[in-house]
User: Fold these one by one.
Assistant:
Number 1:
Amino acid sequence: MAGTLSLAKYSIGVGDRFARQGKPQLQACRMAAEQGVEVIPVWNKSNREHTIIGSSPAGTRAAADEAVRTLGWSRPYHVDADHINLKTVDNFMEACDFFTIDVADVIGRPSEPARSQAFAEGHWELLGELRIPGVARPFHIDRDFMARVANKYLAAVQEAGLIYRRVEAQKGKGQFITEVSMDETDSPQTPAELLIILAALAEEGIPIQTIAPKFSGRFDKGVDYVGDLAKFTEEFSNDVAAIAFAVRQYGMSSNLKLSIHSGSDKFSLYGPIHRILKEMDAGVHLKTAGTSWLEELIGLAEAGGEGLELAKEIYAQACSLREELCAPYAAVINIDAARLPAPESVGRWSPQQFVSALRHDPKSTDYNPSLRQLLHVGFKVAAKMGNRYLDLLSLTETIIAKNVTTNLFDRHIKPLFIGE
Ligand SMILES: [Zn+2]
């Protein structure tokens, strides 16, 4: 439909803690375009991050606009109100054209029995042995299962409807992209559950273009996937098939696709996902957040001198504030405290030692995932340093930019979207 804002097949969420890396991030998308693969950048930042840093959505918008102007990017780009709910959405209204509606907190709130009943009776097409193109083993959905899933998710879907309509009333229909996220919850959703949730979202009239389920396995911040790769691959492929089915069956947006949250650095998943996307002609949205902030630290350390000293100081402070820093991210980090080097010994490290401990190179024996995760959540320390941190970013801009672009392009865009 003309005039409707539509999310491209391939897109990447480039979270940028301090709104300083827009240009090098966009440069990575430009390199993909030069290879004939369009990957649309979406600057995502959650209310949680804005609160910790003391920034505002307007700042994210300004940095994105400036990067686009400077690099002469003529393709679409978006600013994502990441993980918003009814309480936080208003603050993002003006600056954003992409809204990730987070209803994880409402999952499991019982819905009205009559509503669950009516939903289950209205979706006979899903009952029994459901054969879907692209799914090897048919789904078995009986009335009990349907009722259980409806009872678990219908209230969350209704809440998503409330939030969606609030944005629609302000921004206008078709003027923004809608994602619904259910990833920050305890138990993963199976492909059959996803299908039922999609049916409910369609019924609620939410024109979602992307949906973030919780996949099985661990998606810890800034480190590789931990879980059963074969199981994930089958699940992801079945999710893609379920989405294609829902698009046909319920007339959902034809570009509807999966969104992968905490997607940065899930290197072992990129190959299988790329293969599935090619085989099934599907798109994906990959959210990375924090991976660029870690490249800022790598760049600072690599620069040596004051930069290296500041990186070491951030690590030392992060160690002493570990519990406070980790608390908001408890479900998505897994730090082995015994593997954290003492700040005093880090204090004696060369630039190279700091860089190789922090940089996510799975083949390197110096790479330390615990140190990386602690620093991942340690951006609050840098935020508190204020201009001292930001001024050093400016001084070491070139070396940081090189790291940010290389990380996004070589380690994320290439294996996932281009397939190398
Ligand atoms: Zn998320």
Note: The chain has a mean pLDDT of 96.
Number 2:
Amino acid sequence: MRAMVLTRPGEPLRLQELPDREPGPGEVRVRVAACGVCRTDLHLVDGELPDPKLPVIPGHEIVGRVDALGSAVTGFRPGERVGIPWLGSTDGTCPYCLSGQENLCDHPLFTGYTRDGGYATHAIADARYVFAFGEQGGDAECAPLLCAGLIGWRSLNFAGDGRRLGLYGFGAAAHIIAQVANWQGRQVFAFVRPGDEQARAFALRLGAVWAGGSDQAAPEPLDAAIIFAPVGALVPAALKAVRKGGRVVCAGIHMSDIPSFPYRLLWQERHIVSVANLTRQDGVDFFRVAVQAKIATEVSTYPLERANDALDDLRAGRLSGAAVLLP
Ligand SMILES: [Zn+2]
Ligand SMILES: [Zn+2]
């Protein structure tokens, strides 16, 4: 198999020819058809996530076809299209797993972080955490649903039922969640990097009722806001934008420090909450919604060998929608 491998954080990924691996008991091997590039991959490559497996193959938005089954795997057949998400496995026994919060498991493994991911021609996954994906939609177009969509969906649920929803940062996740929110009958207010006209136009094209710079005040009080951009200064900005009792959801795995802010921004029962990882139930729910809401993702594809270019384009904000690698 071929893979783009991270040997040391801070260094570019390197293309490597690796021996093919056989799936172990309970595992499936998947021939990768497409793998999305997520901001978390940038944090991994930049050394902002603690204790990665090294060397590691990044990538946790994998769409592919089952090509080998380990022993004791049931429920999948060779050739079937599947998706492999960020949550790679859990212990199933800790208090979080036992209370329906496997996303907070004490002993998890994460795809493309603490186990190898999908910047490769093949990936091996714990079959219990693999989603059957059906045949609807192209491989590249489906890949961003596996994390940008899923984590966005979990964030949207944490934001509550409010009608006026702010989205800070209009990248891969927001462009999916804006469509879901519209489908649910909500109004989307998009906050983009100040001066980023392309992102502003993109948000309006995807149905936002308002789009402006994140340095601008919201045109009306919002019921909730989701922060997708890894920028701590957006937390007080979003608190300012939400009404009494409103919620601010931080959707990323890493964020720059949050500057201090006056207590009155939080006062009146405003909430700040972060969202971590996903549960398998999130996937079951979201993939059904994605079909019902006819989510259409916009992707820029790169050959696998150009993973570093895809990461650079994501870092520089040169993308509309999501970057996807094709092996
Ligand atoms: Zn657990
Ligand atoms: Zn991700």
Note: The CA atoms of residues 40 and 253 lie 7 Å apart.
